[in-house]
Design a protein that fits this description.
The chain is α+β, with helices and mostly antiparallel strands.
Length: 899
């Protein structure tokens, strides 16, 4: 106080000297609490999330804050409360009530934070927690389910004490639901503002309301995401307030047999092992060299879902591991990994420790196995006991500081493995190195240095973002696990779906969207089966859902979202900005919209390339990047809020017009896309027309028709205005000019003789009628008056649609005259005629009759239109076509010449 010199402080837990300003102890790693005034009341503990969130989790949230503001997240929402708390505490003083409820709230939050969830609200006698936001987790449903199990277990223990001391029977009810939310903002005190999407939070709250005291209810979506990790009891469809239809509800019973994804897949049944025989052979070669005394480290590197764990499983279950000791450990994927956990997991198998063994039995198993292996290892027993969370019998162990204990444990484990390797070959497997703790990392570093001369194979697996320094060490070999090739991916899909030719479009779509990632393929098929898009048994599936309706499963989205969230804020910002540009991203456009310094942008792109989210596709004439596969692009784009997307799309339009000012004709398609997504509808119509004219100039009339139709659809959705009418008239004329050559080329097709439109006149052959056929355009809704309601004589299945008119005269019933089906979209050719979508009647030109029906009306009830044009609304008498003249119908010759 007199000289102003800082005094060294010591950690209250281990006594390690603390650095000035340090937030964590350098010896034991525990948070160093800053001195401050004690809270005035217990209720202050729950006043704000910043007060009760653990420091390590709060640091993650604050680090991600810049990227989190305004994002869409796939999450699992947990609601938990004390059943009947008002009745239990009605006669008690408020202070006594808080004294009872505070421990219950504290254990709820401890369980949530243990699995890295965020307690968003404290609701008096309960909490609301979110798993997967603001920090994304690829297994948010599993974390939430295990947190619920822990809350129930801890509450039962606390309830026994409260029953004896207070005479209270405290029971918790919990509800879980998974879905999408929009995280709006996070303030400095970790308060989170969010908006639920798809009734995510509402269903979670209703599950809590329906749960009996002491139980946990979850929806079908949460059950699907946590399948294998937990066991559930189905309760069947249950009506839920605020939801039109009853939903499937399940009661959480307990933990399941799976601890990681491959085990969960094993419970459901593994798919066929294809395309990885070379990788298994390479690991076998490493084992043979280890048997010969040339220790090896083999690393499997690949993005999530490519099959690293499956390759290891196929290797360990093969006959080539006979005579070798296989030890396997991995960090826990669904909560924060404790120190030494993979090593402890492997040693429990080595010492044959069972879950029901008490401390005395564990001590004896460790000591007897070490003495039998090598009596010289007796000093290592104390360190191994400490590693197993047993109180060491050696009194000198308590006088060691934390770094010394750490070194002693490392030496003990290393000596044990090397001594066992002298007796028999040892295979040590550690997966998911991107999640391991520092102690396990240090042990692997020391083992790599001792590999020469040891009969030891270190088999590790990690994702591309994991960093290490083993590349130059002797005995290190890396095996790259890439996604399946298209042919191999189709082989996998054939085994899962079957050989039905009708599934070929689905298989092609899945291969292209997933880029051959086996996990994404399996989860996509699983999601289709569970949503009834696919029916039948495995290997004999049938598709009953349109391809356009196929959506990405939540499990795949969670895996990719978690990877994106682990990026640095700058890299994540660059990835999201690139997703708005498109799957292929020109570097000049990205530089203009990212608003980052060039060095920062280059570093972020390097991180994205190292993580295999983007890769450089071309260098000339300008650098261009592309996404690894379409699903990564979809997840990155889907995480942005709509307002942010619109702003970026509008900005991209300005950037492209500036960068490519002299050659905008090459960019009109991109400009139209971004203008429409950016809310610039007038500019989108302009660019779509320019794109259509450009396509028509190349004789690509089918593309031109598509561009013109899109422009007309935009104008139809806008409010009527004079400028829009002029643009619509121009587009109709442009469309007419492209329809005629396109339809005439279709009429000359040797595989299809299309029917003539309109009533068949005498003396006209079916073939000549088909050759003169022109198809009505969906854009006739700009020239055709909306149809009146169906006449009483029309069949009940007949329903007028926008843009479909009716015939001027109705033929007699039973007439064999061919009546035209007028669709809203272009026809799909068949072998003998033209089938319109939604119509079961087909005119067969060779037979001169309706196939499947020979009497009026056709099965769809559709009739030729009676069009009008412009404000005069005069009817055209030329083949049922709208006249392009607002003053008079044109002659038949003039129409034929125009089209």
């Amino acid at each position: 106080m007199e000289c102003g010199q800082p005094l060294a402080a010591a950690c209250p837990r281990c006594g390690f000297p603390a650095e000035p300003g340090a937030r964590f102890c350098g010896g034991c790693g525990q948070p160093v609490a800053a001195p401050g005034p004690a809270p005035s009341a217990t209720v202050d503990r729950f006043a704000s999330p910043g007060a009760y969130t653990p420091p390590h989790l709060a640091e993650k949230i604050r680090t991600a804050r810049g990227a989190v503001e305004g994002e869409r997240k796939q999450v699992t929402v947990l609601f938990a409360d004390v059943k009947g708390s008002l009745e239990l505490l009605a006669d008690r003083d408020p202070e006594d009530a808080r004294r009872v409820l505070d421990p219950v709230l504290a254990l709820m939050m401890e369980a949530v934070h243990r699995y890295e969830g965020t307690v968003n609200q404290v609701l008096g006698d309960g909490v609301m927690a979110i798993f997967g936001a603001p920090v994304a987790h690829e297994n948010h449903a599993v974390r939430a389910a295990f947190a619920a199990l822990r809350i129930q277990d801890e509450t039962r223990r606390l309830a026994r004490d409260l029953r004896r001391s207070e005479g209270l029977d405290v029971q918790i009810r919990i509800g879980l639901n998974s879905g999408e939310v929009v995280v709006r903002s996070i303030d400095r005190d970790l308060h989170m503002e969010y908006t639920a999407v798809g009734q995510t939070t509402h269903l979670a709250a209703q599950m809590e309301r329906l749960a009996r005291p002491g139980t946990t209810l979850l929806t079908a979506e949460t059950r699907r995401l946590a399948e294998g990790y937990v066991t559930v009891t189905p309760l069947g469809p249950v009506p839920v307030r605020g939801v039109a239809e009853a939903i499937e509800v399940f009661e959480l019973s307990g933990p399941g047999p799976a601890r990681y994804r491959l085990q969960a897949a094993t419970v459901r049944g593994l798919s066929r092992f294809v395309g990885r025989e070379a990788e298994v052979a390479a690991i076998r070669q490493g084992l043979e060299r280890a048997r010969a005394g040339q220790g090896r480290m083999v690393a499997l590197v690949g993005e999530p879902g490519v099959g690293k764990s499956r390759v290891i499983r196929e290797f360990t279950e093969g006959p080539w591991t006979a005579g070798a000791l296989v030890l396997q450990g991995r960090p826990i994927a669904y909560r924060r990994t404790p120190s030494w956990l993979p090593v402890v997991d492997a040693l429990r198998r080595y010492f044959q420790v069972e879950s029901g063994d008490d401390d005395r039995v564990i001590r004896e198993k460790i000591a007897s196995r070490v003495r039998a292996l090598d009596p010289a290892l007796a000093p290592a027993v104390t360190a191994l006991h400490a590693l197993a969370d047993l109180e060491p019998e050696d009194p000198t162990w308590g006088r060691l500081d934390p770094p010394q204990r750490r070194r002693r444990i490392q030496e003990a484990v290393r000596s044990l493995l090397l001594a066992e390797a002298r007796r028999q070959p040892v295979v040590l497997i550690v997966e998911d190195l991107q999640r391991i703790d520092e102690e396990t990392q240090a042990l692997l570093d020391t083992l790599v240095d001792r590999l020469p001369g040891a009969r030891l194979l270190l088999l590790v697996a990690y994702r591309p973002e994991y960093q290490h320094g083993w590349g130059s060490r002797p005995g290190y070999a890396q095996i790259r696990i890439d996604p399946l090739t298209p042919d191999t991916a189709r082989t996998l899909l054939d085994a899962m779906l079957g050989p039905d030719p009708g599934l070929e479009p689905l298989k092609a779509l899945l291969v292209s969207r997933t880029d051959g990632n086996p996990l994404f393929l399996e989860e996509s098929v699983r999601a289709l089966v569970e949503t009834h898009g696919l029916t039948g048994e495995p290997g004999a599936r049938r598709l009953v859902q349109p391809l356009e309706a196929i959506q990405m499963p939540g499990s795949v989205q969670a895996v990719l979202a978690a990877r994106i969230d682990r990026l640095s804020p700058e890299a994540k910002h660059v990835l999201q900005s690139a997703s708005v540009v498109g799957k292929d991203v020109a570097l000049p456009v990205l530089e203009a919209i990212a608003d980052l310094p060039e060095e920062t942008l280059r570093a972020a792109l390097g991180q994205l390339q190292a993580g295999e989210l983007l890769y450089e596709a071309s260098f000339f004439p300008e650098a261009e990047y592309t996404f690894k596969h379409a699903l990564t692009h979809e997840v990155a784009y889907g995480s942005l809020l709509h307002e942010r997307r619109r702003a970026l799309h509008a900005r991209i339009v300005e950037v492209i017009e500036t960068l490519y000012r002299g050659r905008l004709g090459e960019q009109v398609e991109r400009l139209a896309f971004h203008a429409l997504r950016g809310g610039r509808r007038d500019r989108a119509v302009h660019f779509l027309r320019q794109a259509g004219l450009r396509a028509a100039g190349r004789s690509a009339h089918r593309e031109a028709v598509s561009f013109f139709e899109q422009a007309l659809e935009i104008l139809e959705g806008d409010a009527p205005h004079e400028e829009g009418r002029r643009a619509a008239i121009d587009l109709v004329f442009d469309l007419r000019a492209s329809l005629a050559p396109w339809e005439s080329s279709r009429a000359r097709s040797p595989t299809c003789v299309a029917p003539r439109r309109g009533p068949r006149r005498s003396g006209t052959s079916a073939a000549s009628a088909g050759s003169r056929r022109t198809s009505p355009s969906p854009t006739t809704r700009w020239a055709i008056r909306p149809p009146p309601s169906a006449p009483p004589s029309a069949p009940s299945s007949w329903a007028p649609r926008s843009g479909i008119g009716r015939s001027r005269s109705r033929p007699r019933s039973g007439s064999a005259r061919p009546i035209t089906c007028w669709p809203t979209t272009r026809p799909r050719s068949v072998t003998c005629g033209a089938r319109w979508p939604g119509c079961r009647a087909t005119w067969c030109a060779s037979a001169g009759a309706w196939r499947g029906s020979s009497r009026w009306p056709p099965a769809c009830g559709s009739r030729p239109p009676s069009p009008t044009w412009g404000s005069s609304r005069r009817r055209s008498t030329v083949r049922g076509r709208a006249s392009p003249s607002p003053s008079r119908p044109i002659t038949r010759g003039a129409w034929r010449a125009a089209t």
